[in-house]
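Page 47, continued from p. 46.
Same chain as before, 282 aa.
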Amino acid sequence: MYYMILSVSAVLFSFVFIFSDRYRAVNGSGLNSTLKFTAGSHLAGLIALLIINRFHFEFTPFTALVALTAAADVILFNICSLRALEKTNLSVYSVFSMIGGMALPFAAGIIFFHEKLTAGKIICLVLITASVALTVKKKERGGGTLYYLGVFVTNGLYGVINKFFSASHFNKTGDAAYSAMIEGFVVITCVILLAFFRDKNVRINVKTSFYMGGYGVMCAVGNYLQLIALSVLNASAQYPFVTGGVMIISTVYSFFTPNKPGKREIASVILAVIGVTVLVLL
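Result:
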């Protein structure tokens, strides 16, 4: 059941990169543009999570502290993401994002949360890393190493923070309320910062609002589903599974677009399928 939940999460995450990249193509990656994208997308995510939670409000100091930490990480991730996409193509950006989102929670689960290191987890991690690396295409623009590393660390750190929240025995709210609190803190922080960083050239219209809304809802619901699964599954198993799922779904989807997958992409998805299968069976 929980792997099915993660499969839905992987479907949602398979499309979020497209929304952020298209928004960047319209408004660039300046600080004002990034803050508006972050505020708008997470407002959409907040609304989605409030609906899921039936507008039931919960609060504990511990949840608020962890949610505030996660919100700061989210803002840094979005800043690094849009700047990184200015420097390179989507495939290279995706590598840093997905491997970071998989490797750091994997390592944290083993080192800090005493999860069992199995042969299946090791094989899956290696195969998924190779699968993601195969998708890399030649860089289009140089520079931006700091932002690539920022994407790697912040995306991975988000999973570590969620694992910490899920594993903690402090007085805390439910997963939906915690997730909604993160979204709310992100929106409030960005609105405050926007008072100091203004740029009239950043256009928010129906198209860009759609990009923000699509990104925000898919990320919020996808992360919420991962939190549900974290209550049962190990982080060292969950995050490689989701990364492999994103690889598989993205490649399958590309068969229905003008940009058909090449030999490298097909080899990549084969490795991902093997890695996920080994993880589930072992």
